[in-house]
Amino acid sequence: MILKKLEVKEMFGIFNYSLDLSKDITIITAPNGYGKTICLKTIHSIFSLNFMYFASLDFKEISLITDMGDLTIRRNTSEENSVQSKNLNLFDEDYSLNDDDDEVNFEIFDKQKIIENNLIEITLCNDEYRNSCVIDLKEHQSIYRESIEEFFPFLRRMEHDRWVDRRTRGRTIYNLKEVLENFDFPVIEVSKLELPDWLKDFAKKQKTYFVQDQRLILKDASIGGRENFHTNAIERYSAKLKSKINSSSLRVSIKSQELDSTFPQRLVNNREQYNDFDKSNLINQLDHIQDKRKKLMKYDILSQGNSFDNEIEITHIEDNDVKVLNLYVEDTNEKLSTFDDIYEKINTFVEILNSKLIFKKVKIDSKRGFYFVRDINDSKSKNNEERLLSLSKLSSGEQHQVIILYQLIFNSDSDTLVLIDEPEISLHIVWQKQFMSDLVKISAINNSKSIIATHSPQIIGNQWESTIDLEDLRKKQVQNL
User: Fold this and answer.
1) Whole-angstrom Cα distance, residue 358 to residue 213?
2) DSSP per-residue codes, 260-315
3) Taking the CB of residue 230, how many other CB atoms lie within 10 A of it?
4) pLDDT above 90 (res 23)
5) Which run of H or of E encompasses 321?
6) Alpha carbons 184 and 207: distance in angstroms, whole number
């Protein structure tokens, strides 16, 4: 899928945007309050089928223009029931406004107005068809409410819409809106939401990954303990990289077993295939395999104890060896190619980081994931042993740099639309200036597109042609009134 535009009407009752998102990298900038982050969250929420996000969002209409059709979300906007005019949403208590709108009376309120404002209409249309459905966000709210304690085990329900945080010994109490704002949205199974197939199919066509502005702490609902629900992101990602390396080794082992078990049969049954062969080319291919082995061993992707460990040094090949060695080369290349993706990502991660770090460098192995050591080039030093550094003791800027690079490189798959909120946070100006060139390298690896929300002119650099300034759009709209 190609996302071409995001169009927003009456966001906060004020803003009307039409944003061209057709470029490989789009940068959105504006002062606070213009909705930069909301644009990113809107895109992510639609493709994640998280329509609860729109329950408290003040808007009239939102559209995604794509090569597969235009998806439009509309809220009830009648004059008397307008969310924009009365600032109502399904999270609000029942209340009515006096004629002067200065006081609020919590007792008498027409329930039908709340019900109407809970409904959003979603339409998908192109040249061939038009599909439409109405979603009652009140039903989605009930599903999320029932999932709160499952996803956030440190919260205990006190009443219908109140949860107490066990970690604060009952001092902190949240309603549903506050839970979703403070702890993010639980990942609800799509089957529970009862959405039409055409809407689910549309969302599947575009994967998104959202790099949030708060990056140093991760929320993980898979952890059973109450106290450790929030974890240090840099430590978690190091452990995840370790797991990725070990998983890739397991895949290679499975592939090796498959190929080795059929090696004799394929050698005998395909004799004619290997009769005509260039011996010098075979020697070159064997040398290439050894070079690749060394690269993989540098990051412990291929361990010392691996079956590929024994180097083959051949300068002369007898005719009788050709068939066996040729099949060996084909099989070995197929086995090692399983490592290509993770090697390219790890190598990019290490090269970018080590080009920025001062007095320390990042290393990687299958036992620790990534880790950092003190790097001081002092010829007079008697102690040349590497000093291991604690991940959590890195500076805030260093941790932000490590985490955002990890997320961009390892957490986004091929053809993912990456949404990056304020990448400049805690980064030195020099690192901000380098961000776009780093992103271009990473995007080439993952074949991904990116949309960035930023305040930083250093992040933008010379990319002003790819930049949309929401403040400028607003000024032009006012001038044209």
Assistant:
1) 25
2) HHHHHHHHHHTGGGGSS--HHHHHHHHHHHHHHHHHHHHTTSS-TTSTT-S----S
3) 14
4) yes
5) helix 319-336
6) 19
Residue 232 exposed, middle or buried by CB count within 10 Å (0-12, 13-18, 19+): middle
Predicted confidence band of residue 184 (pLDDT cuts 50, 70, 90): low
Q: What is the mean pLDDT of residues 449-474?
A: 94
Percent of the chain with pLDDT over 70: 80
Sheet of 208-211, strand order: 208-211, 417-421, 449-454, 25-29, 467-469
For 445, residues 6+ apart whose C-beta sits below 8 A from its C-beta are 344, 345, 348, 409
Both tokens of 288, joined, read 């290439």
Q: What is the pLDDT of residues 40-51, one digit of tens each?
A: 999 999 999 989
Q: Give the per-residue pLDDT at 90.
A: 46
SS3 of 371-411: EEEECCCCCCCCCCCCCEECHHHCCHHHHHHHHHHHHHHHC
Q: What are phi and psi of 269, to 5 degrees?
A: -80, -20
The separation between CA 92 and the C-alpha centre of its own chain, rounded to angstroms, equals 31
User: Strand pairing of 467-469 and 155-159?
Assistant: unpaired
So what's the pLDDT on residue 102? 42
* Residues 6 or more apart whose Cβ sits within 8 Å of residue 268: none
Partner residues linked to 264 by β-bridges: none
Query: Can you say whether the dihedral through the CA atoms of 342, 348, 351, 354 is positive or negative?
Result: negative
Instruction: Identify the band that residue 282 occupies on the pLDDT scale cut at 50, 70 and 90.
Output: confident
**Do residues 400 and 426 touch, judged by C-beta distance below 8 A?**
yes
pLDDT digits 0-9 by tens, 84-104: 434 444 444 443 334 444 444
- In terms of Cβ atoms closer than 10 Å to its own Cβ (0-12, 13-18, 19+), residue 118 is buried
CA distance 379 to 143: 64
Task: Kindly report the length of the chain.
Answer: 481
CA-closest candidate to residue 84, choices 24, 13, 27: 13
- Residue 341 CB partners (closer than 8 Å, separation 6+): none
- How many whole angstroms separate alpha carbon 5 and alpha carbon 20? 5
User: Which of the pair, 277 or 456, is modelled with greater confidence?
Assistant: 456
pLDDT tens readout for residues 139-171: 888 888 888 877 788 888 888 888 888 877 778
Q: Which run of H or E residues covers position 369?
A: strand 369-374
Query: pTM above the 0.85 mark?
Result: no
